[in-house]
């Protein structure tokens, strides 16, 4: 896998996804073909990746598919078709990220996941967007780039608790809140007062809100 190919992959779609489609094609033959058959081809590439002994062998086909998808953005006939193409791009960028992750190209993999997230957001495909963001976060966890002295992971647990509460999953919500409580075990400056402000001081309030949202019975053992 040549570094030039990786850099080209990262640069190919970013700007076009970010810019709204101001003009649409009156013909759109390429985009129509892509939206009809692109999903099937993407699924085939994922299957080849899953069963291949050499994951990087899939990279040329992934790059070619991405080139086709990005070129079809200039040929879409309207907002709906643009969203469909962006969904396909988000899908294939996640596959590219997986290939790069297996090749230990962690920075490039994270960039692919970020581009996949942008494309999924543009497409309005929120599950695809969530998967891309989760994969992006996993790269940082895997490479152990986080600062264990900060409260980041406990803030994430508090947010996770709210998500479980909204789904009505009381047991998982309580476990996440208990994990968030462990912020109290940290010492020193655990946040920076800006993008990270979680120190556990409002956990009792957040726990109460989760109880209400999940319809969980209150417990005298919990604050």
Notable features of this structure?
67% helix, 0% strand, Transcriptional regulator, 223 residues
Detailed description of the structure:
The structure is a single chain. By secondary structure, the protein is an all-alpha fold. It has 2 domains: 3-142; 152-214, no CATH class. It contains 10 helices and no strands. It has helices at 3-11, 14-18, 29-51, 59-72, 79-102, 106-123, 126-142, 152-167, 170-181, 203-214. Helix 6 (106-123) packs antiparallel against helix 7 and helix 8 (152-167) packs antiparallel against helix 9. The longest helix is centred in the middle third of the chain and has 24 residues, at 79-102. It starts with a helix and ends in a 9-residue tail after the last helix. Mean pLDDT is 86; it is low at 219-223.
Quaternary structure annotation: single chain
Run of helices and strands: HHHHHHHHHH
What sort of overall outline do the alpha carbons produce when their principal axes are compared? elongated
> From the helix content, strand content and strand pairing, which structural class follows?
mainly alpha
What integer value in Å does the Rg equal? 21 Å
């Amino acid at each position: 896998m040549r570094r030039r190919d990786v850099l080209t992959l990262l640069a190919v779609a970013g700007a076009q996804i970010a810019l709204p489609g101001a003009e649409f094609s009156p013909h759109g033959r390429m985009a129509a073909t892509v939206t009809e058959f692109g999903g099937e081809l993407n699924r085939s590439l994922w299957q080849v990746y899953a069963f291949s002994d050499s994951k990087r062998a899939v990279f040329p086909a992934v790059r070619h598919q991405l080139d086709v998808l990005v070129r079809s953005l200039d040929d879409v006939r309207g907002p709906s078709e643009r969203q469909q193409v962006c969904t396909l791009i988000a899908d294939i960028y996640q596959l590219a990220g997986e290939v790069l992750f297996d090749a230990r190209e962690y920075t490039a993999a994270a960039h692919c996941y970020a581009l996949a997230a942008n494309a999924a957001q543009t497409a309005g495909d929120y599950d695809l967007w969530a998967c891309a963001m989760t994969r992006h976060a996993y790269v940082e966890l895997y490479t152990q780039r986080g600062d264990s002295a900060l409260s980041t992971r406990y803030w994430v647990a508090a947010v996770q608790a709210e998500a479980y509460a909204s789904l009505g999953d009381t047991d998982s919500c309580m476990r996440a809140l208990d994990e968030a409580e462990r912020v109290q075990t940290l010492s020193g400056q655990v946040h920076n007062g800006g993008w990270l402000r979680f120190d556990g001081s409002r956990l009792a309030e957040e726990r109460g809100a989760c109880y209400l949202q999940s319809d969980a019975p209150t417990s005298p053992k919990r604050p």
